[in-house]
Amino acid sequence: MWVYSKGPELSLGESAIPADLKQYTTFPDAPVPHRSVQQIDLVPSLSLLLGLPIPFNNLGTVIPEFFWRDKAGSAYREAISLNSRQIHNYLDTYRGSSAGGELDAVWNDLQNAWSKITATMAKDNLHQHVAYTRLALETCRSLWAQFNVGLMGFGLTILVLSVGVALIMYQYTAMAGASWDAWVEGLTRAYLLSAAGGATIGATAWMPSQAFATFKGISLLQFILFGACLGSSVSVLSAARPKFTPSWTLLITVLHAIAFFSNSYTFWEERIITFFLLSTLVPPFLASFSAPTTHLRWRILFFCGVFAACVRLMAISTVCREEQHPWCSIAYFAGGTVAEPPKLVLALALPACAFVPWYINRQLATSKSNNSLAALFLPYILAPTLLAGTAYWILEWLDSMEFVADTVDFRLARTVLGRSGIAGMLIAGGLLWTLVPGESESKTQVLVLGFANAFGSPYLIFWTISLGIVWIATQLTGQLTLGLATVALLAHLELTDGVRDARALQLAFDTNPSAALALLHSQGSLTAAPTLAPGDTRVRFAEIAPLALLALHAFYTTGHQATIPSIQWKAVFVLSPRVSYPLAPALFAANTFGPVFLLALAVPLLALWNVPPLTPDTPGSAPSALSGAPALMLARSVPRGSAAT
């Protein structure tokens, strides 16, 4: 470390400072020890040099070279006295807190070290001050910076087993058929018994395990929980053998997991996710060329293009971690000392409020499912909610940038907009979705001539309720990326539906060409939603993986990183000018985790989009539709397990 002073010298020199006050370290292959400084010591040293108080919870020791300015070292004596007193006050305060029990085992040692300072002239006993600050640092570091190898092993074991469990559940839901109910009943009984047995074994093994250093500090409850998880996972894995079928999407998932083996300086997950998302379009793009009809071919290619364009446009919005500078530029904010949105975002914010409901209505209109519930919800509830959320953040920007006179305060208007938007979406939107269409007492039988996305449309409206809430809690740039994510989601649904139709039509032509041709002509229009595969509701892993990646992509492009500095605290004050519970934590969760939650909530749409109504006893319909949930767990558990290692 090299420190330069434009004014007077910081110290008299190395020879004037007692050697036992300085720390030396012998570095690898070094012939002699060298002077070393711990990073934590910089904070108290620089604070006092700048005339600031030492941060209350800092445990560093002032660096003597900065304060030894005369032969007696009077400035250093004053600095180290302030330093040790600050640490003592912090430990006293921490001891009196709810977590102070952590210091019970070491409190006597700390008090003895402090009594040696108070028993003598504090300013004349430099070594006692330094010894106390170092003891406090080493003690707290040993308590708070522990890595329990046993617990880490427990966690990694459960993560690895979760991959196999998710794979088993996905494979069996995809092919269970009529035996689904019997398989679930038998498996439930087996894993409950196995969990109870594993918990018993864990409780029994806890006492003898304490003789090994690896398991020191692991409680009885943690052993019981691990045993229960291990037993239930093994019972599921023993019910069926996992089968790995090589596929393009599985390769992308594995590559995503392998990327975590790199360190954070070379691994930029937000960048490679864009590449992986675009790579998932390769199979449907190739499938389009073998589609039996021109309409299906162009439909698949068109929505491939829409999905790719949305992903690329979302990637423009970026925030950076500290270690990514100077190679990363922030596009989420315009820059400067105030977190303001870019000018282009301000220009597009209001049009986006109108575009998102219009585009949803336009997509539903292709299957003639934009009537009844959608006709009321989209223009009269969703659009005003999105407008309220955007207007809130525009007023917040005007307040922050002080574009208006000091006498004008938009705080009340912002609170009204935030509360009315969320209350309207939850109350009016929830009631409308629940009550429309209402149940009828009539028993009249009708002949269904078309199903018009009977399941997909209502669930999409239900999904937009969450979209409206997350929209209000998201800043302007994030609102644009949420709109693009919504368009990408609908493009993925139409793309998946087109590939399914092409696959079903090709199979029909291969098995019974005349019947397939007659069915195709009976639809009356090539632009109508095909109905060639009424019983195929199976959700494939290749259809789920893009949604899992899109969820992460939305997380990063709405201004978030896996770091505390990226937290957008402004979202906490959407409903109130002050922090209020439980509204503040709920808004924080909606802002931070909302984008991921939205795309996870959209998984059932893959099983409901443009599928015909089936009777409850239709063989295989329930497990095939449920396969989306374990597929999503599988798509996330593989990278998560790799990241944990």
From TrEMBL:
GO molecular function (one): mannose-ethanolamine phosphotransferase activity
InterPro entries assigned: Alkaline_phosphatase_core_sf, PIGO/GPI13
Keywords: Membrane, Transmembrane, Transmembrane helix
BP GO terms, sorted: GPI anchor biosynthetic process
One Gene Ontology CC term in the entry: endoplasmic reticulum membrane
Residue ranges of the TM segments: 149-170, 190-208, 220-240, 246-265, 272-290, 296-315, 344-360, 372-395, 416-436, 586-609
UniProt name for this protein: GPI ethanolamine phosphate transferase 1
Organismal lineage: Eukaryota, Fungi, Dikarya, Basidiomycota, Agaricomycotina
Organism: Dentipellis fragilis
